[in-house]
Amino acid sequence: MSERIENAEIQTLLPHRYPFLLIDAAEDYVAGQSIVGIKGVTANEPYFPGHFPGNPVMPGVLMIEAMGQTGAVLMYKTLEASPASATVFFMGADKVRFRAPVRPGMLLRMPVTVTAARHGVFKFKGEVWADGKRAAQAEFSAKAIENP
Questions:
Q1: Is the pLDDT at 1 greater than 90, yes or no?
Q2: d(CA 58, CA 61)
Q3: DSSP-derived secondary structure letter, 44
Q4: pLDDT (tens digit per residue) in 52-83
Q5: Mapped to the 3 state alphabet, what secondary structure does 16-35 carry?
Q6: Share of the chain above pLDDT 70, in %
C-alpha cells in the first residue's frame, strides 16, 4: 500500500500557503516516478466570487498550478530537499488542454508522472480528474534551485 502524504507534510514540503496552496494531500507516491495530488474544491475558494459571479468555475491556470505543486511535492521528496534549502520553479507547460469545468464541491485527483529527469530538470505529464471526469491535462517541467 502506498504512502499517503497528509496536509501537514505537504506544508513542510511546499513553500505555498493559503490561498495559493492548491493541494490538500497526495498519495501513490513513488520516488522519482509518480504521485497523485488531491484537492477538495470548496465554495469558499477565493477566486470563485470573481470567476465567474453566479457561475463559479476554477480557473484553468490554477489547475495547471495544482498539477505543478503535485510535481513539486514529488521532486522535494525524491531529492530529499526542503523549501529551506531549495525552491522548485515551474519552467514551462506544453500540450495544455482543458476538458471540463471544475466547480465548488468537486474532488480533484491529479496523477503526475515523471517522463524525464536530467541535470535537475524534471519533466512531467499530468492530468486533473474532477469527480471522475478528466478536466485538464498538460506536460510541464520544473527545476529545483538552491536558495541563496
A1: no
A2: 9
A3: T
A4: 999 999 999 999 999 999 999 999 999 999 99
A5: CCCCCCCCCEEEEEECCCEE
A6: 99
Give the length of the chain.
148
How many whole angstroms from its chain centre is CA 6?
14
Question: Cα–Cα distance between 118 and 122 in angstroms, integer?
Answer: 7
- Scan for cell 488542454, then name that residue: 97
- Give me the pLDDT at residue 125, please: 98
The mean pLDDT of 31-50, rounded to a whole number, is 97
Taking phi over 0 as left and psi of -120 to 50 as alpha, with beta for the rest, 83 belongs to alpha
Alpha helices for the chain (secondary structure H): 7-13, 60-79
CB-based contact 139:94 (threshold 8 Å): yes
Catalytic residues: 51
Cβ count near 59 (within 10 Å): 16
